[in-house]
């Protein structure tokens, strides 16, 4: 048994039961973005959250324990992603990464945007020319220190 096998079982149950991430998140008590990341093996559940997931997905005690172990983060199988949607994010960072870096440094100074003290919100934005995907990423600024 490993975390990837637990993830596959969760995904299979989600499909078989026609579940939505937002409905699962409501029961877990976290955002749909965080809950989805956790159920895909990128975050750590506390005991209460794991117990809810156990009930939702008919997990064994061992599978539930895997949800509470700090995961190895980073889920892409290759350096350059091949899935078209994920590749577009890679493309965004390749094209706009230096711009994002310059503008963050101009506004905040020398540092980074945290992916630990972080939140994300994904919403549908109606548009007569075709619906748009609105993604808001919010990470704490962490300045580099002099020593």
Layout of SSEs?
Blueprint: H1 3-16, H2 21-28, H3 32-39, H4 47-57, H5 61-66, H6 84-108, E1 111-125, E2 132-143
Antiparallel strand pairs: 1-2
Helix pairs in contact: 2-3
How would you summarize what this structure contains?
The protein is α+β, with helices and mostly antiparallel strands and 147 residues long.
Structural account:
The radius of gyration is 18 Å and the shape is globular. The longest helix has 25 residues, at 84-108. It has a two-stranded antiparallel sheet with strand order 1-2. It has helices at 3-16, 21-28, 32-39, 47-57, 61-66, 84-108, and strands at residues 111-125, 132-143. The protein is an alpha+beta fold and 147 residues long.
Q: Report the sheet-strand fraction.
A: 15-25%
How many helical stretches? 6
Low-confidence stretches: none
Largest sheet: spatial strand order: 1-2
H and E order: HHHHHHEE
Number of strands: 2
Q: Tell me, briefly, the overall form.
A: globular
What's the average pLDDT? 95
Q: Look at the helices and sheets and give the structural class.
A: alpha+beta
Q: Describe the main β-sheet briefly.
A: 2 strands, antiparallel
């Amino acid at each position: 048994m490993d975390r990837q096998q637990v993830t596959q079982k969760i995904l299979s149950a989600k499909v078989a039961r026609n579940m939505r991430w937002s409905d699962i998140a409501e029961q877990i008590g976290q955002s749909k973005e965080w809950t989805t990341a956790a159920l895909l093996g990128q975050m750590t559940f506390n005991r209460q959250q794991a117990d809810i997931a156990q009930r939702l997905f008919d997990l064994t005690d061992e599978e539930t324990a895997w949800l509470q172990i700090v995961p190895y983060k980073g889920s892409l199988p290759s350096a350059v992603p091949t899935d078209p949607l994920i590749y577009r994010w890679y493309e965004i960072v390749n094209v706009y990464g230096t711009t994002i870096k310059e503008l963050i440094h101009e506004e905040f100074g020398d540092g980074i945007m945290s992916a630990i003290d972080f939140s994300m919100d994904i919403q549908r934005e109606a548009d007569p020319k075709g619906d748009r995907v609105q993604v808001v990423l919010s990470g704490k600024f962490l300045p580099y220190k002099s020593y």
